[in-house]
Design goal:
single chain, alpha/beta, Urease, subunit C, domain 1, TIM Barrel, metal-binding
Length: 424
């Protein structure tokens, strides 16, 4: 499908009669109509050649703060045998051991970045499987890609290891050193183990010593007894860890008694944690039982968190791998599905910021903006309102970088055909 809008070449351009979210321009209204002038690659005052948008929606560039680029697009060679979380773990472990060379990881990660850019995303944080020796294979690839994509998609990396491998010394300390040298974020998967408190204290000690922020996978289960999020919040408070802490998934909150989740969210707010919800992947994996219709959505308590002032973002998570068979790193799709799954409609008018400024702040990035002086990194959609925006995939959107339309041609899946089934 071709783009629906043509822009003149050269000189300032005024995108006239654009619909923009009120929360992005200091208005309490859901949407407002206004003109946006672009000059010299930035949003500007004044007026240029007018292009009438007729109410078409304009958003600044997206921030996708929880992805797995290194896992992406292995489904064709490593499908999930039964769609379960256990099946995903097994398939990824086998594929990683057999095939994740530097060349393989690089090509699949770059494929994902090409998709994200084409859909209007300007920054991506990716978790990277970092079990030895994979850490020494993947992190140099990440650093090369971060440099190669600078100015197009800003890339951040987080190490991903299980909590039972975290100790103050030993292999994980070496991984933490690698992450620090690469300017990354220290991460781990928190799940119930008898000595989780000790593991968390070791984790935060390693992060503090290296000046690293933290990013957790936590309670990715519907087991109401899984309360790792509460322990993370308690440990942050007890240790005084003052770098940013992100917690992702937090699914078990949705199945806990009210008194339990309220107590946990009070601690999360006090600890200053940032929550990222991954609604598409959680919907795919959680409450899956053969021959039984799922009852639960897996989404965490985003409304209750937001009411307490806890920052909440949404993100893509996995893409065409055993943890999620679908997806294309399209943050509009993420917001559309989050709206449906989490009933964000008939709610606060600023949920769109959960894929814009809120994740940017969590990642320490400049917030996407429509204010004069901000980079003219924009997405323009034919839709004139939220229901029009979410009713269709908006495949004809126009993406601007520094005020200029980019080529939105998506990479073809056949580009990776030679990697499917190849030996390490």
């Amino acid at each position: 499908m071709t783009d629906f809008l043509s822009l003149p070449d050269g000189g300032p351009v005024t995108l006239a009669d654009a619909s923009v979210p009120g929360c992005l321009v200091g208005s309490s209204a859901d949407l407002v109509r206004r003109d946006i002038t672009v000059a010299d690659g930035r949003i500007a005052e004044g007026e240029g050649t007018r292009v009438d948008l007729g109410g078409a929606m304009v958003l600044p560039s997206f921030v996708d703060m929880h992805t797995h680029l290194d896992k992406g697009h292995i489904w064709d060679r490593a499908p999930n045998p039964d769609g379960t979380f256990a099946g995903a773990l097994s398939s990824v472990a086998d594929d990683r051991a057999a095939r994740w060379s530097a060349a393989d990881v690089r090509r699949r990660m770059e494929f994902g970045l090409r998709c994200a850019e084409a859909h209007g995303t300007r920054a991506v944080r990716t978790h990277l499987d970092s079990q030895a020796p994979q850490d020494t294979i993947t992190w140099p690839v990440f650093e090369d890609l971060r440099a190669a994509w600078a100015g197009r998609v800003e890339l951040q990396g987080v190490c991903l290891v299980g909590c039972d491998s975290v100790t103050v010394d030993g292999p994980f300390a070496a991984t933490a050193d690698l992450v620090a040298r690469a300017g990354g974020v220290l991460g781990m998967v928190a799940y119930p183990v008898p000595d989780l408190k000790d593991r968390l204290q070791a984790f935060f000690a390693l992060a503090s010593a290296r000046g690293l922020s933290a990013d957790f996978h936590v309670d990715e289960t519907l087991d109401p007894d899984s309360a790792c999020l509460r322990m993370i919040a308690e440990t942050v408070i007890e240790t005084g860890f003052d770098a940013p802490v992100v917690v992702g998934h937090c699914c078990s909150l949705s199945t806990q008694p009210e008194a339990e989740w309220q107590r946990t969210l009070d601690l999360v707010a006090r600890a200053g944690l940032h929550v990222v919800s991954l609604p598409m992947c959680n919907l795919y994996l959680q409450d899956r039982h053969a021959g039984r219709t799922p009852r639960l959505r897996g989404i965490t308590l985003v409304h209750e968190m937001k009411t307490r002032g806890i920052p909440v973002s949404f993100a893509s998570d996995n893409t065409r791998d055993p943890f999620y068979a679908y997806g294309d790193l399209d943050m509009l799709e993420v917001l559309r599905q989050a709206t449906r799954i989490g009933h964000l409609d008939h709610s606060d008018a600023d949920w769109v910021d959960s894929v814009l400024s809120v994740p940017a702040r969590a990642c320490g990035l400049a917030a996407p903006s429509l204010a004069p002086g901000a980079p003219a990194d924009l997405s323009i959609f034919r839709a004139r309102g939220w229901t029009e925006l979410f009713a269709r995939p908006q495949s004809d959107r126009v993406v601007l970088r520094e005020g200029q339309p980019i080529d939105r041609t998506l990479p073809d899946y056949s580009d990776l055909d030679d990697l499917m089934g190849c030996p390490r």
